[in-house]
C-alpha cells in the first residue's frame, strides 16, 4: 500500500492542472461550438442501452453512432478513431484557440505502451479503460457528435450537431467493453468530461440526469415520467425526488461520493443493523480513502470484505426472521459464482408492483440528505439458476474498479430504473429509488419518437 501511495500522483497537482484546462477548454470550445444558434441552448437527450453480457451501459451520441461506455468516474471522452471520425488534432501547448494543456495521467493502472504524457506534440491526454484498468497516452481531437434537444417531455427535432474535445486512443484499448463500444464517455466533474464540456459549450446549466437503461439528459431540464394520479398522467420527477449532498474526494476528484453513515435491513417487522466499526463508511479526505462512491463501470455493488461480512449477516438474519410462516426459504450452498448469498423457496409476489416480496436495504444518509436511499427488489437481487442471489459482493483481489480505496462502490445494478439527477453546481444528487414502486419506470417515458 505504501508503495502504491508513493507512486500515486499528488492530488494537489490535479487542481492546478484543472484550472489550466478549464480556462483553455472554454477558449477551445468557443471555436468549436456549433454556430447559427443563440445560447442558452435547450437541454440535450441521448439514448442509453444495456449490454447483457457485461451488465454495463453505453451511450450513443457520436455522429457515427458508435456506442461509448458510460463511466460516471470517467475524466474525458475517448474513442478509437480514424481520420473520418475525428478531426482537428490539438497539440499540447499549442496556441490555436487556447491550449489543451498537458495532463498528469489520472489512471492508476497499467499502461499499454511506454509513452509518457506530453512527451510529444499531440499525446497530451490519458485514455483509461475502467473495465481492464488499462490506459494509454492519446492525442486530443475534436469529435463530431449529435443528439436531440428536449423540453423535458419529448425529444425535439431536428437532431443537433456539435463537437466535443476527446482523446483518440489505440484500437486495443476498448478490450472487454460492451459489444460494439469504441471507447468511453466520462461523466465526472472533471472539465473534459462529456457533461462538463456540454455545460461550458452550451450554457444550459451544470446538471445531467440518468435513467438507466433508457436515457441521459444534459442540462437543467424537467424529467417527466408517468405518475399514477397525476394529471395528465406525467410528473416532473426532479421536483419530487429526495436529494443528498455530493462529497468530493481530493485524491479522486472525478468520483461522485455520497454520505452514507450506516446500513440496515428490514422485512415484515424483522429489522437488523449491519454492525460496522465507527466511521467505517466515512470518506477520509486527507488520505483520500473510504467513503461510498457511485460507479456505472461496476455491474454490482461491492463492499470492503469486513463491511460485506457484517452486512451479509444482517441481511441473512432478516430473511430468516422475516419470512412468511408456512413458506420455505433456504440458502443455496454453494452460491453460484460470483455471488456469495443466494436463496431458493417461497418469495410471494407483491401486487403492485408485481415483483418478489423481498427485504429493504437502507443506506442511511448523513446531514443534508432529505431521505435515506432504500434499495428495493430488482436493484439488488438477480435470478440465477432458479435462485435469487444478492447482487452485492465483497471486494476481491486484483485492484479496484474505481480510483482510490472506497469502502463501498454502488454499482450499475443499484442505479437501474432509478432517476438520478446530478447537480454539479449545487453539489447534490437527486435519487428516485426504484421507479417500479412509484408505478413508473424509465421505459415509461415518452421522450423518444421511435
From TrEMBL:
Kindly state which keywords UniProt assigns to this record, in alphabetical order.
Answer: Signal
Keyword Repressor on entry: no
Alphabetical list of PROSITE patterns matching this protein: PEPTIDASE_A1, PROKAR_LIPOPROTEIN
Q: Which SUPFAM superfamilies match?
A: Acid proteases
- Annotated Peptidase A1 domain ranges read 53-432
Q: Which residues cross the membrane?
A: none
What biological-process terms (Gene Ontology) are attached? proteolysis
Q: Which InterPro entries match?
A: Aspartic_peptidase_A1, PEPTIDASE_A1, Peptidase_aspartic_dom_sf, TAXi_C, TAXi_N
The signal peptide annotation in the UniProt record is 1-36
One Gene Ontology molecular-function label? aspartic-type endopeptidase activity
State the superkingdom: Eukaryota
**Record keywords: Calcium included?**
no
Which family does the entry's similarity section mention? Belongs to the peptidase A1 family.
**Name of the protein described by the UniProt record:** Peptidase A1 domain-containing protein
Amino acid at each position: 500500500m505504501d508503495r502504491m501511495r508513493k507512486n500515486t500522483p499528488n492530488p494537489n497537482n490535479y487542481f492546478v492542472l484543472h484550472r489550466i484546462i478549464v480556462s483553455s477548454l472554454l477558449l477551445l470550445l468557443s471555436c468549436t461550438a456549433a454556430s447559427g444558434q443563440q445560447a442558452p441552448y435547450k437541454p440535450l437527450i441521448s439514448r442509453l442501452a444495456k449490454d447483457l453480457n457485461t451488465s454495463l451501459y453505453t451511450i450513443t451520441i457520436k455522429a457515427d453512432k458508435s456506442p461509448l461506455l458510460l463511466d460516471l468516474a470517467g475524466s474525458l471522452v475517448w474513442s478509437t478513431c480514424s481520420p473520418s471520425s475525428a478531426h482537428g488534432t490539438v497539440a499540447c501547448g499549442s496556441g490555436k484557440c487556447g491550449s489543451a494543456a498537458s495532463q498528469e495521467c489520472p489512471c492508476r493502472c497499467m499502461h499499454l505502451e511506454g509513452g509518457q504524457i506530453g512527451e510529444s506534440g499531440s499525446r497530451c491526454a490519458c485514455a483509461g479503460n475502467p473495465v481492464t484498468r488499462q490506459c494509454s497516452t492519446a492525442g486530443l481531437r475534436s469529435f463530431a457528435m449529435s443528439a436531440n434537444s428536449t423540453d423535458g417531455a419529448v425529444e425535439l427535432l431536428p437532431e443537433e450537431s456539435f463537437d466535443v474535445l476527446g482523446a483518440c486512443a489505440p484500437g486495443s484499448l476498448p478490450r472487454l467493453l460492451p459489444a460494439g463500444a469504441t471507447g468511453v464517455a466520462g461523466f465526472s466533474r472533471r472539465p473534459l468530461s462529456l457533461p462538463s464540456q456540454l455545460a461550458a459549450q452550451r450554457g444550459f446549466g451544470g446538471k445531467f440526469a440518468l435513467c438507466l437503461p433508457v436515457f441521459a439528459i444534459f442540462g437543467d431540464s424537467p424529467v417527466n415520467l408517468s405518475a399514477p394520479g397525476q394529471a395528465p398522467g406525467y410528473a416532473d420527477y426532479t421536483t419530487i425526488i429526495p436529494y443528498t449532498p455530493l462529497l468530493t474526494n481530493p485524491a479522486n476528484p472525478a468520483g461522485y461520493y455520497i454520505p452514507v453513515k450506516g446500513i440496515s435491513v428490514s422485512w415484515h417487522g424483522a429489522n437488523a443493523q449491519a454492525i460496522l466499526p465507527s466511521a467505517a463508511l466515512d470518506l477520509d479526505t486527507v488520505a483520500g480513502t473510504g467513503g461510498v462512491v457511485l460507479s456505472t463501470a461496476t455491474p454490482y455493488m461491492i463492499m470492503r470484505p469486513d463491511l460485506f461480512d457484517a452486512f451479509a449477516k444482517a441481511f441473512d438474519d432478516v430473511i430468516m426472521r422475516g419470512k412468511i410462516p408456512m413458506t420455505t426459504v433456504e440458502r443455496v450452498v454453494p452460491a453460484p459464482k460470483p455471488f456469495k448469498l443466494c436463496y431458493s423457496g417461497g418469495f410471494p409476489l407483491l401486487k403492485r408492483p408485481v415483483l418478489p416480496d423481498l427485504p429493504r436495504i437502507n443506506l442511511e444518509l448523513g446531514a443534508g440528505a432529505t431521505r435515506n436511499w432504500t434499495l428495493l427488489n430488482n436493484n439488488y437481487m438477480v435470478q440465477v439458476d432458479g435462485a435469487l442471489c444478492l447482487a452485492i459482493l465483497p471486494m476481491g483481489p486484483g485492484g479496484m474498479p474505481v480510483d482510490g480505496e472506497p469502502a463501498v462502490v454502488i454499482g450499475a445494478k443499484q442505479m437501474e430504473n432509478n432517476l438520478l439527477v446530478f447537480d454539479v453546481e449545487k453539489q447534490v444528487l437527486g435519487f428516485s429509488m426504484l421507479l417500479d414502486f412509484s408505478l413508473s419506470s424509465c421505459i415509461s417515458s415518452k421522450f423518444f419518437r421511435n
